[in-house]
Input
Amino acid sequence: MTSSAKVETVVKLGALVGEGPVWEESEQTLLFVDIAGQKIHRWSPATNQIQSVETSDMVGFVVPRRSGGYVAGVGRSFMAVDWSTQAMTHLLEVDEDKPNNRFNDAKVDPTGRLLAGTMGREVRPAELERQQGSLFSLDSDLRVTKHLSQVDISNGMDWSLDQRTFFYIDSLSLTVDAFDYDTTTGHLDNRRVVYRMAEEEGLPDGMTIDLEGRLWVACYNAGRVINIDPATGVRLHTVSLPAMKTTSCCFGGPDYSDLYVTSASLGLDQSERGRQVEAGNIFKVTGLGVKGRASCFFSG
Ligand code: BGC
Ligand code: CA
Output
């Protein structure tokens, strides 16, 4: 644990699968989803108010859109979300040949392209038919491109500060991978492993990069976020969280020095629930001594 890091619970929502946090600078709010709870939430640290919108199916992600509102991954569909009216408009569908699939994590690249992955249906968290997922991108003209197939659980992603490397997690591979990234086309090349999870680190889930080019990876089933240097493969720090199913993280706050961490409660048995009263809550980690960068708007 970094010496001066402090962890506090900020949103006591007990989400089934809290996920996909995005800091919205203009509103100074934290946007996130409850995948299995089928809800998009927006929480304001200033007022401690939560606004929520229900989705008609599991919602894997939500990202802000340059033209206003959001784009969410609901079931296998990209949906436009108008927050003020709560209206959702269907944009496009993926994985038409795999009706049991759903969207999971997604992120907007520094040019405004949205990358979003899918996965098969879980019988239990992290147990599913393998290699059913894919990784897609959605361009500003709403054109979909498939970049990867045979993915187990498409999860965390982010880009290096020079935008030339794409970091990616397929959870069941138990690795954090890197690709060469072509910002003009979104093309991925030269896949390699940058970090292999230690036994006690569970499954790699969501992640974010800091301004030093290091990754913060939420460790599902391990109650922690690890900070790794993708250049050396070395783990620099571990932050312990009071919920085992830590799912994702993002930097936020007025100067992007707070790390927000989401968690899940789905899949815990009765006795685990009794011991993990914080499961499904959102935590804020301060004092890490590092900052993140602003999230990007989808350009479409
Ligand atoms: C998925 C969950 C999955 C977990 C662990 C999350 O991103 O949404 O369904 O169980 O990762 O791999
Ligand atoms: Ca995830």
